[in-house]
Batch of 4 targets.
Target 1
Amino acid sequence: MTPELTALTLAALLQVLQFFAYAVAANAQVGPKTAMGPRDTPMHVTGLAGRLHRALSNHFEGLTLFTIAVVVTTLSDQASPFTATCGWVYLAARVAYVPAYALGLSPWRTLIWALGFVATVAMLLAAVL
């Protein structure tokens, strides 16, 4: 497996952990009746649960673009030490992003997000240039 694919796999596993953390926090906030109910009305969570939910949603968005970058890099045989570094930087940024968001660390959350985004764009550019 290429380093880029390894970083992608680990990023997906991070998303699983994020979902678990959010689910625990949200269920503690709304209770089991709401959590297991039909949710005919939207469930609104606040505080830590809300921040974990937003961080998870942000990872879904970022992971889509990162997945495209890894697939393009891998299928076009453009993998290089540079694109591998981009993959690891993206993963490190996503790992750091979760606690930064959960703890409300501003402006660090935004700077960490930007680092991951730049790494993804750099990987895409490396694949086409």
Target 2
Amino acid sequence: MWFCPICANLLMVDGTLSSPSSSFVCSTCPFKKSITSKRRNRIKLKNKTVDDVLGGAGAWENVDKTEAVCPECQHGEAFFMQIQIRSADEPMSVFYKCEKCSHQWCHR
């Protein structure tokens, strides 16, 4: 995607890319630039770092244990906590953490 250097709007292609006279044109101002060669750039975006919304490792201290099957290792016991993350008329969300592999999952 190319943007207009004058008004910062998205530039459109005037003509076909295979024709020698195609150009980028701005739909809001008179900017026009001829396309001289094909160009392809790929930018790999970084993954976002995710904050632990449950409060980190300290949130799992002093929580209860229940029978729940871990979807990762199939272990039969997990720690759990209930948190109200939606409006008050919605049920609480139950978060689990596997006792064996520490995988976390949610049941709403």
Target 3
Amino acid sequence: MFIVMLHYLQPIPVVEQHVEQHRAFLDRHYAAGHFIASGPQVPRIGGVILAQGLTREALDQVLAEDPFYREGVAQYQVVEFVPRKFAPALAPLFAAEQ
């Protein structure tokens, strides 16, 4: 499982110009089962994506498709982790990560 931290490199008005394409990118990868949660950071200095079911190399290829990356709007920090403890309701989500 991965936590992807996006940090904006451009002012919010520039970010907003690419949000629609970024959301379409997110939708494609939710449909593919790669992403399980995403959203903006508070304060709005970037975003966060939770990803699973990919190798690190495959995730890097996916992130390279993001319009935020292609257009130089955001940079990424990727943290890989193995969930060992989680709420019982999330067990089906994390079973493949064990």
Target 4
Amino acid sequence: MAWIMLLVAGLFEVVWAVAMKQSAGFTRLWPSLVTLVGMVISFVLLSAAMRSIPLGTAYTIWTGIGAVGAFVVGVTLLGEHLSVMRVVAAVLIVSGLVLMKLSAD
């Protein structure tokens, strides 16, 4: 269950990061509210997952899901630049996440 909470926490990190981008520096109400609500949900789920997943593992996976998820959303929905170097970086992050998960007790 902790791993599911961590996964969902990471997905909410993507939600709040994208909403923050859409908030235009917190000048737009609804994206700003989505940012704040997404942050709270993400942090609560991360905190709950950390009850049984080691700190380093949980935090690394949470931020990795957020980083790669934000990259994918940026490229697919926001028209951000896609390059070989950025894809390689994302693959390296995912590889690190897999290794971190495999090393978790």
